[in-house]
Design a protein that fits this description.
Radius of gyration of chain A: 16 Å
Shape of chain B: globular
Number of domains of chain A: 1
Strand content of chain A: under 5%
Largest sheet of chain A: none
Distance between the termini of chain B: 25 Å
Distance between the termini of chain A: 44 Å
Number of helices of chain A: 6
Strand content of chain B: 15-25%
Oligomer: heterodimer
Structural class of chain B: alpha+beta
Largest interface: A-B, 37 and 39 residues
Chain lengths: ~160, ~575
């Protein structure tokens, strides 16, 4: 055995529409501002798109997450339409915040009865943070933008989108 | 190169802190030893590239909870929950390959705990250790030199006492940029934090480089070998004698002994799941495979236990933590000067001023110690940010709160405390072998077996009320001092009653002079099977209140230097 080598998966997990939904949810968890990057600035959703294309040999929870997202995204999309009249990807920031708040408190209506909303929220939050702050080799934290703003491994730098 | 040894003087089971130390001491005495290690050899390049997601989040270096967990019985003692084995790395060098290598000594207050805890609380079974700190002193010194501990004696009165003229083999790690601030703040309260003894090179030493402050310490392998491990210190020296036969990938399944004479004969082992058992004979066997697993091996081997003590008095240190931010302090940074650790530092300061509590406002007397870190610099980002909080009632923040948390951490100095306290020993806190059980609905829950087909360990554990009160008290004291210094509390965690398996672990094969009240004797030899010794923290009669490794290493020196040659 020797040095661990990261192998990018050959496929991606989400369809374009789903990827946009995940990106919208992640942006609600770590929203961008004029002076700081958000989840969308660093392709955090693409991180999950690749992670879920891997299997249990990378991490044992991946198969369970594949199932979870396949069931949760349509439910969240439907809840979004029901509450605000538009899908996740089209929600305004305050609407997304309200949706996530209900999800995190277990009060979002329309979710499948067997799905633990609080646990789903915790998983989304965890994956969003990984997409923002994990090593860029995993597909998020594009160009180390989040690390550079935050000051990890090098002094913190100002952020701008220009 | 050492060759194969077919007739060893002793077999050592486990190649970590205790086993590696035994290998050095016994081979230097001229003995021939075989070291069985369940895991494989993992050279330093396997820890590259540094990656928090792979190594820490995906727990690459510990047994997989999916097929090789332990089981926790929960607070009703009837549960059957899989639990992570956070501090059991199965590889050559054992858990010293991923440890934080914080190496403070246990002291008189730990070993003669009843001199401090004069009136143990109901339900606690506290005993003095059958050795004094003075007896341990020369072994601590040998341990600290063999394991290349950096540090500085006599920094303050509360520090572990050392003999006149003694010092660590190399100076302590550089200070963190927050050290001066913290010294002053605690000084106002009459307390003195000090630079901790670490098994990390502060400079080139013993053929290994000084620490590069890469930022990947606890739970990561050290790719530069700056951090001491069994593999790069004691085991390496044992192998260089030519009298140590290290066998990775060898899993000891049973101890074999003469039941009539009560004498050790050898061990059974397998080299792969489903493989045939093989046998190796030796008159002496030293077991050191982590507290819970050592107790499990005793149970699997049916070591005679007339007083039902094997697995009992298991102790976890009660733990507590707190994070604070100082809004008037800019981020601690290496830009303050080269004498400080950079941002990707490892810390830490130790604070031992509450080791003994002398406070009329509480009945608590035996306390514990703190490690003090800077949360921004010492913890890898996923771990830190997943725990983001803006106060005790605002945990796991997200949205604008998460942005505020990140901005605060980015701009202001902070401090993080990790408290290790004395844990009360309780007979019912124990290790058993997992077995089929009946669930509340009447269905059968099958015992979990490891990939080799043996039942996994099952733990039963309730932290005693003293443990939880102590954690609360200790955190309130330091948080109060930090608030006086301008700190704002961001997070506080205090030990709860349940413990599924996280933290320093000891006991379960308690040492003592009375065969009716202990499993191993004063030299850590089984009362019922002569020639069977225990060298990990399972021997500890009580938990003590510091990181346990250097004390178990010193004990391995004490035992192995005095064992008569067969």
């Amino acid at each position: 055995m020797a040095m661990w080598i990261f192998r990018e998966p050959d496929t991606r997990f989400f369809m374009a529409e789903q990827l946009a939904q995940v990106a919208a949810l992640f942006e609600g968890i770590l929203p961008a501002g004029a002076d700081h990057p958000g989840a969308s600035d660093v392709d955090a959703a693409e991180y999950l798109n690749r992670l879920l294309a891997m299997d249990a040999s990378t991490y044992y929870e991946i198969p369970a997450w594949q199932k979870l997202y396949a069931e949760a995204l349509p439910a969240l999309e439907a809840a979004s339409v029901s509450l605000f009249g538009s899908g996740l990807a089209a929600l305004k920031a305050n609407e997304m915040h309200a949706l996530l708040e209900r999800l995190s408190q277990g009060t979002l209506t329309g979710m499948p009865a067997e799905m633990d909303s609080k646990k789903l929220f915790a998983t989304l939050r965890s994956h969003c943070i990984e997409g923002c702050f994990a090593d860029p080799r995993w597909g998020g934290n594009a160009n180390k933008v989040m690390w550079r703003w935050f000051g990890y491994l090098e002094p913190a730098q100002d952020f701008s989108r220009s | 190169m050492p060759g194969r040894i077919d007739k060893p003087d002793a077999i050592i089971v486990g190649s970590g802190a205790g086993g590696g130390t035994a290998a050095q001491v016994l081979t230097q005495r001229g003995w021939k030893v075989v070291v069985f290690e369940k895991g494989r050899n993992r050279p330093a390049d396997e820890f590259l590239p540094f990656d928090e997601l792979h190594f820490r989040e995906h727990k690459d270096l510990i047994p997989k909870i999916s097929d090789d967990p332990m089981v926790y019985a929960g607070l009703d003692d009837r549960g059957h929950a899989r639990s992570e084995r956070w501090w059991e790395a199965n590889m050559v060098g054992g858990t010293t390959m991923i440890w934080d290598s914080n190496l403070p000594r246990y002291t008189r207050e730990d070993m003669q705990v009843l001199s401090v805890l004069k009136d143990p609380p109901p339900g606690a079974s506290m005993v003095n250790w059958p050795w004094s700190y003075e007896e341990f002193q020369p072994y601590f010194e040998k341990a600290e030199h063999a394991w290349c501990v950096s540090g500085q004696a006599n920094q303050c009165a509360a520090q572990e006492p050392t003999r006149a003229g003694y010092n660590y083999p190399m100076p302590p790690m550089r200070e963190m940029a927050s050290t001066d601030f913290l010294r002053k703040a605690f000084g106002k309260a009459g307390m003195t934090p000090y630079l901790s003894p670490r098994g990390i090179n502060s400079q080139t030493f013993d053929g290994r480089p000084g620490c590069s402050f890469c930022g990947f310490n606890q739970f990561f392998g050290c790719a530069a070998n700056s951090r001491a491990s069994s593999a790069n210190t004691v085991l390496r020296r044992a192998l260089s004698t030519g009298r140590c036969d290290l066998r990775p990938g060898h899993y000891v399944t049973r101890l074999d002994f003469d039941r009539i004479k009560g004498r050790m004969k050898g061990v059974w082992y397998v080299t792969e799941p489903g493989g045939k058992e093989s046998y190796l004979a030796a008159p002496l066997v030293f077991v050191s495979v982590q507290t819970i697993q050592s107790a499990r091996l005793f149970l699997l081997s049916e070591v005679p236990d007339p007083n039902k003590l094997i697995g009992r008095y298991l102790t976890y240190h009660p733990k507590a933590g707190a994070d604070l931010v100082f809004k008037k302090q800019p981020t601690w940074t290496e830009q303050l000067g080269p004498q400080f650790q950079p941002r990707t530092a490892i810390g830490s300061l130790q604070l031992r001023d509450l080791y003994v509590i002398d406070d009329r406002n509480t009945h608590l007397t035996k306390g514990g110690k703190f490690s003090i870190y800077d949360p921004y610099t010492c913890v890898t980002p996923l771990r830190q940010i997943k725990g983001a909080a803006l106060g005790p009632h605002k945990p796991n923040v997200w949205g604008r709160d998460l942005v505020e948390y990140l901005s605060e951490l980015r701009a202001h100095g902070g401090v993080s405390f990790s408290f290790t306290g004395e844990g009360m020993s309780v007979y019912d806190n124990r290790v058993e072998l997992d077995k089929d059980t009946t669930a509340a609905d009447g269905s059968t829950v099958k015992a979990i077996k490891d990939p080799w087909g043996l039942p996994v360990a099952k733990t039963f554990y309730h932290h005693h009320p003293y443990d939880r009160e102590l954690c609360k008290y200790a955190m309130e004291r330091v948080v109060g001092i930090m608030v006086d210094a301008g700190g704002e509390l961001r997070k506080i965690d205090v030990q709860g009653e349940a413990n599924p398996g996280y933290g320093h672990v000891h006991g379960a094969l308690r040492a003592g002079l009375d065969p009716g009240a202990s499993v191993v004797d004063g030299n850590c030899q089984s009362h019922t099977v002569k020639g069977l010794y225990v060298l990990d923290a399972a021997f500890m009669p009580t938990s003590g209140a510091s990181n346990p490794s250097i004390t178990l290493i010193a004990n391995a020196f004490r035992v192995c230097e005095n064992v008569p040659q067969p």
